[in-house]
Amino acid sequence: MSVLVTDGLDHVNARLAYTKITDQESIVKVFPPSSGRGTITAESIRVEMPIFDCRPLKKTLSLDEAGFQVVEEETDFDDFYNADSVRQYYYPQVVDLLQRHTGGIEVFVFDHNVRNQERADRGEVGVREPVDGAHNDYTLSSGPRRVLEILEENNALHLHAKRAALINVWRPIVGPVQDFPLAICDARTAMPDDFVPTRIEHFLEGNLESPHLVGEIYNFRHNPSHKWFYVSNMQPREAMLLKCFDSMSDDYACFTGHTGFRNPTSSADAEPRQSIEARTLVIFDE
Questions:
Q1: Cα–Cα distance measured from residue 107 to residue 213, given in angstroms and rounded to the nearest whole number
Q2: How far apart are CA 76 and CA 101, in angstroms?
């Protein structure tokens, strides 16, 4: 299966944070913004990579081949910093979007993250900083486990035998995004050994010593074959679909390395990135 053709595409060169391979266990600790503690990440190395503008390729991108795609999806919702409002009004829009663009027969939105560096620095509850480290949200172990948990929570275990995919829907809150955009690696350019199992611990405001949730993600190891892409000047009317797990990994893209990155061409007065990612489970009739 051929990878995306980059000939003639505009690009920026940026120093991406890849995981550093050591003898130590790879661990990430995520603290609530109001705690004043930043996320503790595994040791990383910076590697300069070209990141290509995939805007001219939008019509050829495929979740099942490249692991990501970009869709034009207007939304009249604008209350993204109100978590209850997001769940009540924005989640149904995400369900509709994914059913139309993926053909899934069921969609469950189970979580979301709002990212804004300035608000996160102020300790605003529920707001996080952009991620600066190449990773994938699930592993061969945690992906199936999370699928089962979501089906159990939604009384939908009768769907467990069907194909399931964990897909993030990433959208700017304001645009254009120039400062710290999202970069995605074409899934076909990543090898299994590039993904490093990493323990991730989530803490709550009331207890910063013992994790509330423990899971597993993949950190991403550098491979010169990686091809990275972003959407130049991305707007709130656009959404990025990003696949983080697929139960039929032999037939479809399964894991997609991604990270925020400091755009060296961004002007000093560019609006700091604000974005939301909705985390979903999509069930297919196969």
A1: 24
A2: 19
Mind listing the pLDDT tens digit for each residue in 100-112?
Answer: 999 999 999 999 9
Q: Identify which of 81, 270, 69 has the alpha carbon closest to the alpha carbon of residue 173.
A: 81
Backbone angles phi, psi at 111, to 5 degrees: -170, 165
Longest dimension (CA), the chain: 52
Let me know if 86 is exposed, middle or buried by CB neighbors in 10 A (0-12, 13-18, 19+): buried
243: helix, strand or coil: strand
Q: Contact, 257 vs 136, CB < 8 A?
A: yes
> What is the 3-state composition of the chain as percent helix, strand, coil, each rounded to the nearest 5?
20, 35, 45
- What's this model's pTM, rounded to 2 decimal places? 0.93
Q: Which amino acid is at 181?
A: P
Name the residue type at position 80.
F
